[in-house]
């Protein structure tokens, strides 16, 4: 799937498809003709990050596609909706949104043309292993993301969807009493081994070293220099909160926890006995 896109400075249009009105027995319909010569802008980079993490692009019946995104964050649901509507000139009603009883949001777009466009240009978005044990041939569009200077936007959204932070004190006994330190890790969960390698390449392009932890299925950023670089260059989408999987930080914004993590390098002892760590 070649993608001969122009340079990033040539981004004039605001949509990636050209809508043509068609007379149909059901009325006037839009036909989306893919324009695969386009470079990747920030909106498309954000959408791709969502599609490669918490969303699915799957066949709907024989002749259509379903693009489904599920998340607990309404902020991310709104971002998905915004990207789909602006990139593909969708009317408001084309993005169907509902909330389940457990607070989980689902946004759905059914479209043959948009599904064809995404899969023809970017390939397979499936990240889970098939029943036969094989991994999907999914791959991030690394060259384009780096060339078009949108790696930051892609990583910000990807880490906001499937990433998080570990930030808490640890200790062990020493000869003169307990020895204390802080665990600081930024991680991205991704079961697909090839995609984890792709994420390492993207991070490295921004001067950030990370570790591919096969046993956990995660990318981990652990060194102070790299954590600081992540905070400076990437960060998290504003308003996205830590989920219930975190023992200490549930309900806090991910960016807020990252800011605290950075400030802890200046005076770590102030963080050892925070009330939340003593519960």
Description:
The protein is of the alpha+beta class and 279 residues long. The protein folds into two domains: 8-125, Endonuclease I-creI; 149-277, Homing endonucleases (Endonuclease I-creI). The chain contains nine helices and ten strands. It has helices spanning 42-51, 74-88, 112-122, 142-147, 151-162, 193-205, 224-233, 254-263, 269-272; strands at residues 17-24, 27-34, 55-60, 64-71, 96-99, 105-110, 163-174, 177-189, 211-213, 218-221. Strands 3-4-6-5 form a four-stranded antiparallel β-sheet, with helices on one face. It has a four-stranded antiparallel β-sheet with strand order 7-8-10-9. A two-stranded antiparallel ribbon has the order 1-2. It is globular, with a radius of gyration of 21 Å.
Summarize the structure in short.
The chain is α+β, with helices and mostly antiparallel strands. 33% of the residues lie in helices and 26% in strands. It has helices spanning 42-51, 74-88, 112-122, 142-147, 151-162, 193-205, 224-233, 254-263, 269-272; strands spanning 17-24, 27-34, 55-60, 64-71, 96-99, 105-110, 163-174, 177-189, 211-213, 218-221.
What's the helix and strand layout?
Elements: E1 17-24, E2 27-34, H1 42-51, E3 55-60, E4 64-71, H2 74-88, E5 96-99, E6 105-110, H3 112-122, H4 142-147, H5 151-162, E7 163-174, E8 177-189, H6 193-205, E9 211-213, E10 218-221, H7 224-233, H8 254-263, H9 269-272
Antiparallel strand pairs: 1-2, 3-4, 4-6, 5-6, 7-8, 8-10, 9-10
Helix pairs in contact: 1-2, 1-5
């Amino acid at each position: 799937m070649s993608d001969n896109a122009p340079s990033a400075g040539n981004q004039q249009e605001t949509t990636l498809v050209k809508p043509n009105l068609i007379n149909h027995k059901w009325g006037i319909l839009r036909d989306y003709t893919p324009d695969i010569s386009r470079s990747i802008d920030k909106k498309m980079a954000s959408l791709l990050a969502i599609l490669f993490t918490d969303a699915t692009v799957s066949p709907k019946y024989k002749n259509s596609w379903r693009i489904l995104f599920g998340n607990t964050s309404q902020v991310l649901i709104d971002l998905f909706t915004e990207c789909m509507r602006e990139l593909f000139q969708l009317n408001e009603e084309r993005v169907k949104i509902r909330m389940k009883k457990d607070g989980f949001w689902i946004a759905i777009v059914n479209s043959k043309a948009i599904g064809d466009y995404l899969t023809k240009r970017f390939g397979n978005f499936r990240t889970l292993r098939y029943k036969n044990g094989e991994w999907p041939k999914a791959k991030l569009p690394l060259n384009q993301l780096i060339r078009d200077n949108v790696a930051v936007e892609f990583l910000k959204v990807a880490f906001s969807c499937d990433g998080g932070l570990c930030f808490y004190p640890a200790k062990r006994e020493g000869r003169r009493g307990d020895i204390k330190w802080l665990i600081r890790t930024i991680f991205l969960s991704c079961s697909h081994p090839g995609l984890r390698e792709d994420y390492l390449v993207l991070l490295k392009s921004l001067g950030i070293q990370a570790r591919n932890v096969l046993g956990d299925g995660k990318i981990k950023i652990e060194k102070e220099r790299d954590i600081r670089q992540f905070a400076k260059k990437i960060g998290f989408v504003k308003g996205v909160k830590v989920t219930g999987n975190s023992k200490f930080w549930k309900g806090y914004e991910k960016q807020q926890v990252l800011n605290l993590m950075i400030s802890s390098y200046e005076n770590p002892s102030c963080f050892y006995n925070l009330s939340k760590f003593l519960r």
